[in-house]
Design a protein that fits this description.
This protein is α/β, with parallel strands linked by helices and 489 residues long. Helix content is 33%, strand content 21%. The protein folds into three domains: 100 residues, NAD(P)-binding Rossmann-like Domain (Rossmann fold, 3-Layer(aba) Sandwich); 207 residues, 3-Layer(aba) Sandwich (UDP-N-acetylmuramoyl-L-alanine:D-glutamate ligase); 145 residues, Alpha-Beta Complex (Protein-Tyrosine Phosphatase, Chain A). The strands form four sheets. A nine-stranded mixed beta sheet has the order 8-9-7-11-12-13-14-15-16, with helices on both faces. A six-stranded mixed beta sheet has the order 17-18-22-19-20-21, with helices on both faces.
Length: 489
């Protein structure tokens, strides 16, 4: 594929924001890892930055020290960085000409809306990466499977020998290195709905894996969530391409709205262009015809959902120039990502599996289908679930638990909602519900799981919920689970 229009621009004639930051008063709202990198970038550009966060210095802990050290790290005067922390942190946001928002900050907050109405330009780390990157960008979104597919696509493209940079919603913020990325490189970005919501640019190759209810605590509605996802291809040019899941109606429908070319991936049937399954062979179909990539039995990742992720990665990487043999070499050795169906330990015949990345019901459903018993067999899972409430429905997940989960250990804000959904599913279907135990935290529930587990069973942390009621992120939650399991005797 040629390197025309590496990433399509937004509205015609829109000036590059990066060239107008010197001396500008800029607000940076939400001080996570990516926005600390944004502050470094802005200070180097000569901007005067006001850093805003709902947390107080005491609540921020070590990150507050990192924040206050940034001017010295960059080599600028300390007065170029001001702090507005704790209650009222968004006051006066509408007085800033530019505001960089953390991805998960609700755009519907009244101060944010007031700032937009007053003419404040809203931006983000990913926006700057798109604006400044000279290499082609391949972007991947979806409600589930983004991290696995992005990581695998990056590994396939590394196998081509091209310099490959992976970032976005995972890894190190690319804003730190974007200006040094050479034009001949390839950038692969995992893009969440939060990151896409403000975007007015799309990658040259875009991938939409699937769309199901998620993040409804931040998005005003499912329609808003879906529209944010579509931004990954909305601004493409006629020669750009979007890769869609042919097996799902919500992604098939997106083809009607794609301004560029469309390719597909499917495990259920052959597609006109893209990757599909023929018998047990993963096939790639493009201008060169049909070519076998590898046998699906060589995939190390368990579950049908991961077969779909592999198909998507093969299709996307093929469009970016990877040959089938290069894709096959990367897929054969790819063991997955941390916190995704990760075997932590086998103790006395019981497997302990960390799936902390399952922050929505559909991800936990995929885990249950992968690890649960064959039809007609007894339930063999002890499931640890619950966490921060994103206002998602649990009905479908509850149906999947019946017949698969023997014991359900619940914690966090969503524990009671999951319990109700399971009890209602059992009453509606007449099938037995799992034994349900409510706990205060992982420390208690991992010990209960150890007491109750039988040889041949699996103890699965797959919360179907975000982590923010107890942890900073799903990684911290997964690491806590790992540590507790490793200490079991």
């Amino acid at each position: 594929m040629t390197r025309h229009a590496m990433h399509s621009s937004g509205p015609a004639g829109q000036p590059a924001l990066s060239s107008h930051l010197g001396g500008t008063e800029v607000a940076v709202v939400g001080l996570g890892v990516s926005n600390l990198a944004v502050i470094r970038f802005l200070l180097r550009r000569g901007a005067r930055v006001t850093a805003m966060d709902a947390k107080t210095p005491e609540q921020m802990g070590e990150r507050y020290k990192q924040l206050t050290a940034l001017p010295e790290e960059v080599g600028v005067d300390p007065f170029r960085l001001s702090l507005r922390l704790g209650p009222g942190y968004l006051d006066g946001l509408d007085r800033f000409p530019v505001a960089f928002l953390a991805p998960g900050l609700p755009k519907s907050l009244p101060p944010v809306r007031a700032a937009q109405q007053a003419g404040t330009v809203l931006s983000s780390e990913v926006h700057m990466v798109f604006e400044l990157c000279r290499a082609p960008i391949l972007g991947i979104t979806g409600s589930a499977g983004k991290t696995t597919t992005t990581s695998l696509t990056g590994e396939i493209l590394k196998a081509t020998g091209r310099p490959t940079f992976v970032g976005g919603n995972i890894g190190t913020p690319l804003i730190d290195v974007v200006e040094s990325i050479p034009p001949e490189a390839q950038v692969v970005l995992e893009l969440s709905s939060f990151q896409l919501q403000l975007m007015e640019a799309s990658p040259q190759v875009a991938v939409v894996l699937n769309v199901s209810p998620n993040h409804l605590d931040v998005h005003a509605s499912m329609d808003e969530y879906l529209e944010a996802k579509k931004n990954i291809f909305r601004f493409q040019g006629p020669r750009d391409v979007v890769v869609l899941n042919a097996d799902r109606p919500e992604t098939r429908e997106m083809a009607r709205q794609a301004p560029g070319r469309v390719a597909w991936f499917s495990r259920l049937g052959e597609v006109e262009r893209g990757a599909f399954l023929r018998g047990s062979d993963i096939m790639l179909r493009d201008e060169a015809g049909d070519r076998v990539v590898l046998d699906a039995g060589q995939i190390r990742l368990p579950g049908l959902h991961n077969l779909e992720n592999v198909l998507a990665a093969v299709a996307a990487a093929g469009l970016a120039g990877a040959r089938p043999e290069q894709a096959a070499a990367a897929v054969r050795v790819f063991g997955g990502v941390a916190h995704r169906l990760e075997l932590v330990r086998d103790l006395n015949g019981v497997r302990y599996i960390n799936d902390s990345i399952a922050t929505a019901p559909d991800r936990t459903t995929a885990a249950l289908r992968t690890l649960g018993p064959e039809a007609g067999q007894e339930p063999n899972l002890i499931l640890l679930a619950g966490g921060y409430d994103k206002h998602l429905p649990y009905d479908g997940l509850a149906d999947e638990m019946l017949g698969r989960v023997r014991i359900l250990l619940l914690l966090g804000q969503t524990g009671d909602a999951i319990r109700r959904a399971v009890e209602e599913a059992a009453a509606r279907t007449g099938r037995p519900a799992p034994r349900i135990i409510r706990g205060a935290g992982l420390d208690e529930l991992v010990l209960r799981a150890r007491e109750l587990a039988r040889p041949g069973e699996a103890v699965l942390l797959s919360p179907a919920s975000a982590s923010y009621d107890m942890y900073r992120n799903f990684e911290e939650r997964g690491e806590h689970f790992r540590r507790l399991v490793s200490e079991l005797r």
